[in-house]
UniProtKB/TrEMBL annotation:
This is Glyoxalase family protein. It comes from Citreimonas salinaria. Pfam families: Glyoxalase. Residues 7-132, 152-271 form the VOC domain. Coiled coil: none annotated. InterPro entries: Extradiol_RC_dioxygenase (IPR052537), Glyas_Bleomycin-R_OHBP_Dase (IPR029068), Glyas_Fos-R_dOase_dom (IPR004360), VOC_core (IPR037523).
Length: 310
């Protein structure tokens, strides 16, 4: 069993437009845009990162906004909900705020003894805010008070068929997650002694496979401290039979990727070097940063990419 995994590092999804995506996370949810860059494999598409003040691993939601992308189809083999932590007592504030911004799909409930507020993003993305005790500082953007600010990730909920659920549960166990509880068709896993973003839920469903599009999660990334621990994880996964990519430099972290039995793409990302490697913390996410191999395209990309007005 691996002991290098800390919990979530980031979650990456697909959007249908940059401006609407930026407005939702910075103006509605009050998160900070910590990086404005481009997709390494498709530099004509942004890669936008939102998180806390520094983009701490375990707080960062990232997006590929493909302009005009069709919506994904919900089904098995995908992440259905990405949940963030807010302080206890903050949900009434958020229910009123989301209603003011006319956010759809607002529902309240309780799961595993924790109160949550579910809602939908601009592309139908599934989100939830969960009340817990969490002493991480929140980013108080666009008028969100400290006592209600989002602290970072709580969990992801993966909708998987029976075979995918069993295989993914076994994988999570190998990655150091422990089965904590079950409620209905949902099983909760938690990595002990990890960061605050240490929960994964698996919902077993009898449904056809979903298809990715706007509003879909592209991949889920798990945190390790450094490249040495990442290489240990990579070797262990490959020794177990998983096909794992070589280590890839993503400028702000090093990444490896592999496909899970349930169909969700997993990444293991390093906490180093961080989002301040090319920008001062006070100005994170303000300028367009390009990977070195795409810097020669700057003039063309600045003319092509959709302007983002903050």
């Amino acid at each position: 069993m691996l002991k290098q995994i800390n919990g979530l590092h980031h979650v990456t999804s697909i959007a249908s437009g940059a401006q609407g995506n930026n407005d939702f996370f910075t103006k509605t949810l009050g998160m900070r845009r910590v990086k404005k860059t481009v997709n390494f494999d498709a530099p004509d598409v942004y890669h936008l990162y939102y998180g806390d003040e520094q983009g701490t691993p375990g707080t960062v939601m990232t997006y590929f906004p493909f302009t005009g992308a069709r919506r994904g189809r919900s089904g098995a083999g995908e992440v259905s909900t990405t949940a963030f932590i807010v302080p206890k007592g903050a949900l009434p504030y958020w229910q009123a705020r989301l209603a003011t911004f006319e956010v759809p799909g607002i529902e309240t409930g309780t799961r595993f003894g924790e109160n949550f507020l579910a809602f939908r993003g601009p592309d139908g993305d599934g989100f939830a805010l969960v009340e817990t005790d969490d002493d991480r500082p929140g980013w108080t953007g666009n008028g969100v008070p400290e006592e209600a600010a989002i602290r970072g990730f709580h969990s992801t909920d993966m909708r998987l068929n029976a075979r995918g659920a069993a295989g993914t549960a076994e994988l999570l166990g190998f990655m150091g997650y422990e089965r904590e509880d079950s409620q209905g068709n949902v099983t909760r896993f938690r990595v002990p002694n990890g960061n605050a973003a240490q929960v994964i839920d698996i919902s077993e469903v009898d449904a056809p496979a979903g298809s990715q599009g706007a509003g879909s999660v592209h991949h889920v990334a798990f945190s390790v401290d450094n490249r040495e621990k990442q290489l240990e994880v990579r070797k262990a996964l490959m020794d177990t039979g998983y096909q794992v990519t070589p280590v890839i430099d993503r400028d702000y972290f090093w990444a490896i990727y592999f496909q899970t039995p349930g169909g969700v793409l997993f990444e293991v990302a390093t906490n180093e070097p961080g989002f301040d490697r090319d920008e001062d913390t006070a100005h994170l996410g303000e300028a367009l940063r390009l990977p070195r191999q795409h810097e020669h395209l700057r003039e063309a990309l600045e003319q092509h990419l959709e302007p983002i007005h903050d």
